[in-house]
Write a structure and sequence with these properties.
With 365 residues, the chain is an alpha/beta fold. The chain contains 13 helices and 15 strands. It folds into two domains: 20-190, Rossmann fold (3-Layer(aba) Sandwich); 205-362. The protein has helices at 20-28, 35-49, 64-69, 86-98, 110-118, 144-155, 171-175, 208-219, 234-243, 267-275, 302-307, 319-324, 337-343, and strands at residues 54-58, 73-78, 104-108, 126-130, 161-168, 182-190, 227-230, 253-256, 259-262, 279-284, 291-293, 313-316, 330-332, 345-352, 355-362. The model has no long low-confidence stretch (mean pLDDT 90).
Length: 365
């Protein structure tokens, strides 16, 4: 089940994609959904493992288009209207389960997960392919190929299930900088340790001193004449406070020589800024998940990151966030597999005024 507009608001800097007005504005700003291509990537893995699989799905862009592109057989149980909304997602899922689907794969973000879970019968597991703007929930695979591999193993009858949370936040509040994830459902997902996404972990208040120290360390490393594209996150918000700048709560901002050049920039605005002179992306780590690109900062698109040159990323995080990953790498999920591979290896993470950790970074495949 594909949400055709999932992630549409991300590159446009709109903090989500819910509602026709937001979707129209995102399109006006030149944004596009990556749901179809991510669905195809997931299904190509399934097709390689189980080439004769028949996929029960919704019609057209809600599923059948991606199934056909992966050269699998689509069994269409729901015919969507030209413009779909949450009601169509819920209806499609009911029809999939009624047709005998034993695992519901969906492509979208937290809002899609919420709709999938709304009328889901007990005992039917789900698995999300991350393609939205908001992905706080723990019912997602770490990436499209990972979801496909899990689905193939599920078809072989090899996997147990675990309970996962479906969380979502109010997008209007999010645009005002208020992040209050709310639990909407508990669902079952196939269990593959390290291949499904943990829920986003908040930074505890006891870490305030460590956050301040990490931000102070990064502030000392900022160079004159370089445009810094500052992604969202508590550590970068603290960096802005130390620099005396009014950064956007959850957007991507551009800072040059201590001045705020663009606040809450869209993908197109970031690309224009990179073209204007030397620039680097400054990002932090999502607690509990390890993502540095591809979750909540889709304005930092493959086009933008690619234009930054051979050393595009600066990462800042507390030592505790790295410890909590228990050796798992930081993750980049830009949507461009070639770029993700180029970014993989090791990255320097500023953790304090005089401390830098060299930490592995990889694509979630």
């Amino acid at each position: 089940m594909v949400n055709p507009v999932a992630g549409l608001g991300g590159p446009a800097g709109l903090k989500g994609s819910d509602g026709a007005a937001i979707q129209a504005l995102a399109l006006q700003r030149g944004s596009r959904s990556r749901a179809q291509e991510r669905a195809e990537r997931m299904l190509q893995v399934v097709a390689a493992a189980v080439p004769d699989a028949a996929i029960v799905t919704a019609g057209g862009p809600m599923g059948a288009t991606a199934v056909s592109a992966a050269e699998l057989r689509a069994v269409v149980t729901f015919d969507p209207p030209p413009h779909t909304d949450a009601r169509d997602t819920r209806s499609a899922v009911v029809d999939l389960v009624d047709a005998g689907a034993g695992l519901v794969l969906f492509v979208g973000g937290d809002g899609t997960a919420r709709d999938v879970a709304a009328d889901l019968p007990r005992g039917v597991p789900i698995l999300g392919v991350p393609a939205g703007v908001k992905m706080y929930s723990s019912c997602f695979a770490t990436g499209p190929e990972t979801a496909g591999a899990i689905a193939a193993r599920w078809l072989a009858g090899e996997l147990p299930v675990r309970t996962a949370e479906v969380l979502d936040v109010d997008e209007d509040a999010l645009r005002e900088g208020v992040v209050q994830p709310r639990l909407h459902a508990l669902v079952e997902i196939p269990e593959v340790p390290g291949r499904t996404q943990a829920r986003k972990a908040a930074t505890p208040g006891s870490e305030a001193a460590a956050v301040a120290a990490a931000a102070r360390g990064m502030a000392r490393r900022l160079e004159p004449g370089v445009r810094y594209l500052l992604g969202p996150g508590g550590t970068i918000a603290e960096l802005g406070r130390q620099l005396g700048l009014d950064l956007s709560p959850l957007g991507v901002d551009v800072v040059l020589d201590g001045r705020l050049v663009v606040r809450d920039a869209s993908e197109a605005e970031l690309f224009a800024q990179v073209a204007a002179g030397p620039a680097r992306a400054l990002v932090t780590v999502i607690g509990g998940q390890g993502f540095v690109l591809g979750r909540g900062n889709q304005q930092l698109s493959p086009r933008v990151i690619g234009a930054l040159g051979t050393d595009p990323l600066l990462v800042v995080a507390t030592e505790q966030k790295l410890i909590e990953l228990a050796g798992r790498p930081l993750l980049v999920d830009t949507g461009d597999r070639g770029l993700d591979a180029a970014l993989s290896g090791h990255v320097r993470v500023v953790t304090g005024p005089g401390t830098v950790a060299v930490y592995p970074i990889a694509s979630p495949e």
